[in-house]
Amino acid sequence: MASPDVLSKLRDAASATITRNLKHLGMYGGDGDPAARASSPAKRPTIPAWNIPAKLGAAHRIGKDEERLHVNHHNDLGDAERHAEWSKRMADDLGPGFSTAVGIAHEIQETPPPWLGGRNQPLSEMVMDLHNNAEGVRASRGGRGIDPQHLMDHPLIPSAWARQRSQNYQRGR
């Protein structure tokens, strides 16, 4: 069992990442800070903010495209790039606020145990994925490509307990 200190560090890292992502939400139609958007060369969203079903469909299609481009990657640079590119493309086409919300929702959906409908994703992997999603949104806002130097290419695994949980998740247990 992980020590309370290890769990506290993971919780703090997840909290910081989620807080950073949530700064994009609820500020001007859900598409982020208008001042930041005005100074950013990023494109305007192509689907109106009110058309949530169309935006969710587009987000799903973008995710499937990125999965095809980054097959057989888990907890490595390819996985990090997939998350960042997915978030960047969503931010470019659907808005940074929407991209942030979908990325967070996806990670929250993966984390609970199977009996609650999740896949038992370890918190350390959720932190990695949220960090890379945020980098994709930042790249979109800055009108730039994804910088691999800013990606987290492996989860924070501070103990044998977390390592075992990660291995079990990878095996689908």
Number of individual domains: 1
Q: How many helical elements?
A: 7
Q: What is the averaged pLDDT score?
A: 79
* Low-pLDDT residue spans: 24-40
Rg is 16 Å
Helix-strand pattern: HHHHHHH
Give me the count of strands: 0
Tell me the fraction of residues in β-strands, as a range.
under 5%
Structural class by secondary-structure content: mainly alpha
Helix content: 55-70%
State the distance separating the first and last CA atoms: 18 Å
Q: Tell me, what's the shape?
A: globular
Largest sheet: none
How does this structure look, described?
With 173 residues, the protein is mainly α. It has one domain. It is built from 7 helices and no strands. The chain has helices at residues 4-22, 34-39, 52-69, 77-94, 96-110, 123-142, 160-170. Helix 3 (52-69) runs antiparallel to helix 4, helix 4 crosses helix 6 (123-142) and helix 5 runs antiparallel to helix 6 (123-142). The longest helix has 20 residues, at 123-142. The protein is globular and about 45 Å long. The chain starts with a helix and ends with a helix. Mean pLDDT is 79; it is low at 24-40.
Blueprint (SSEs and pairs):
Layout: H1 4-22, H2 34-39, H3 52-69, H4 77-94, H5 96-110, H6 123-142, H7 160-170
Helix pairs in contact: 1-6, 3-4, 4-5, 4-6, 5-6
